[in-house]
Amino acid sequence: MFADAVAYGIALAAIDRGLTFRARAATMSGSVLAILGIGVLTDAVRRGVFGSAPESQVIMVGASISLAVNATVLYLLGAYRKEGVHLRATWIFTKVDVIANLAVILSGAIIWLTGFRLVDLIVGAAIGLYVIKEGFEIVGEAKEAREEAR
Predict the structure, then answer these.
(1) In what way does this protein cross or attach to the membrane (predicted)?
(2) Contact between residue 14 and residue 84 where contact means Cβ atoms under 8 Å apart
């Protein structure tokens, strides 16, 4: 949630600013997202090494609430995602949240139905890698926008 607040704050700061500033804001958002992905991936590895006991129903409830909020925000941002690289970065950030929420719900359901707890680590690692990829995508788009601004 803190990372989302940072991304939204960065995007708000870039409104009514020049293209170079907006591109820098998108670069910051992409960097935050990539760092977040590294953290998620690291946590999945940590849980794999030291063990974890995911509570499937708690995971599913939390992810479902988060999904409702993130899906609403994604819908609202959809109309603005082509209004600038900084807003596209925020839209991608939120899209990542929605996809991660869906993956966590699926993971929780699999654990609940089968007891196969390893899926938590697999999904966690996959989410981490996906988040890193999207962070680098944002940084790449921001770089293109900076080059266009010159």
Answers:
(1) Multi-pass membrane protein
(2) yes
Domain count, the chain: 1
Residue 83: give the domain boundaries. Answer: 2-149
CB 92 within 8 A of CB 10: no
Q: Which two tokens stand for residue 115?
A: 């007891």
Q: Could you read off the pLDDT of 62-90 as tens digits, one per residue?
A: 999 999 999 999 999 999 989 889 899 99
What is 13-55 written as a DSSP string?
Answer: HHTTS-HHHHHHHHHHHHHHHHHHHHHHHHHHHHHHHH-----
pTM of the model: 0.89
- Rounded Cα distance between 46 and 42, Å, is 6
